[in-house]
Amino acid sequence: MVRMVQAIIRVSKKHPRYGYRRIRALLVREGWQVSRKFVQKVRRAEGLIVQPPKKKQRRGGQSTGKIPTTAKHPNHVWSWDFVADRTDEGAPLRILSLIDEFTRECISLTVARSLKADDVLAALERAIAERGIPGHIRSDNGPEFVARITRQYLNEHKIKTLYIEPGSPWQNGHVESFHNRLRDECLNQEWFLSLTEARVVIENWRKKYNQIHPHSHLGFLSPNMFAKYWQQAKQRVLGSGQATPSHHQGLLPELTIQPI
């Protein structure tokens, strides 16, 4: 009996995720004649009950900027996130969107079958080469955004991170709103036969969105129009010796009288 108990303990410790039925099955294979109830009794006495699996904790990013941060000028706060779609044969599409929260411009839409941290950084580098370095970048805690290489790159370029709380997409409202527009006006309207076609169509939509889309928060100017008029207003204000305009209020009424 003592040897049987020792065998039950030995096999249970070797297979800690097995319940008493599976432990008994392994003991029978070894030649032991033992009942399931006895195996269960011994395991309970020895504290060998299978514990519920621990819920994995997603690694979160640590914000280096103060949340919330409202964009006060172009390149002050960028946002990025992913949206998913498929080509006609069912193959996945993953789209990385990058927007400027102040002008509402879509800086880039990177389309691929899959996107990893290296791809995310490559897209950011292209945007920085074209538009300069942003002050902050807002995102969720996706693995591509909290990866060590991503955080290291942002730290080296002095870009402050604004990580939203897990399960709180509304904290990244600008990009969520943009994704709704992207899906409604483009993704839900098109059947993409290939990755190449998807890239062309989505990029054409991005340009159209920036150039034409009347944005309600920009006095129904398009993002490109607003960015252009903001720069003009900035130059006039600087020329007069006043402070640089830092927000939409007080600027929009002047912009909306411009010819569209």
Label this structure with key terms.
elongated, 260 residues, disordered C terminus, 5 strands, alpha/beta, single chain, five-stranded mixed beta sheet
Average residue pLDDT: 86
Task: Give the strand order, joined by hyphens, for the main sheet.
Answer: 3-2-1-4-5
Main sheet overview: 5 strands, mixed
Helix/sheet category: alpha/beta
Instruction: Give the ordered list of helices and strands.
Output: HHHEEEHEHHEHHHH
Question: Taking Cα atoms only, what radius of gyration do you get, to the nearest Å?
Answer: 28 Å
Q: What is the tally of helical segments?
A: 10
Counting DSSP E segments of at least 2 residues, the number of strands comes to: 5
Helix content: 40-55%
Hey, roughly how much beta strand do the residues contain? 5-15%
Termini separation (Å)? 92 Å
Shape: elongated
Could you name the ranges where pLDDT drops below 50 across 5 or more consecutive residues?
A: 253-260
Give an account of the 3D structure.
The chain is an alpha/beta fold. It has helices spanning 2-14, 20-29, 36-45, 117-131, 143-146, 148-156, 173-187, 195-212, 223-239, 252-256, and strands at 77-86, 92-100, 106-112, 136-139, 160-163. Mean pLDDT is 86; it is low at 253-260. The radius of gyration is 28 Å and the shape is elongated. Helix content is 45%, strand content 13%. Helix 1 (2-14) packs across helix 2, helix 2 (20-29) packs across helix 3 and helix 7 packs across helix 8 (195-212).
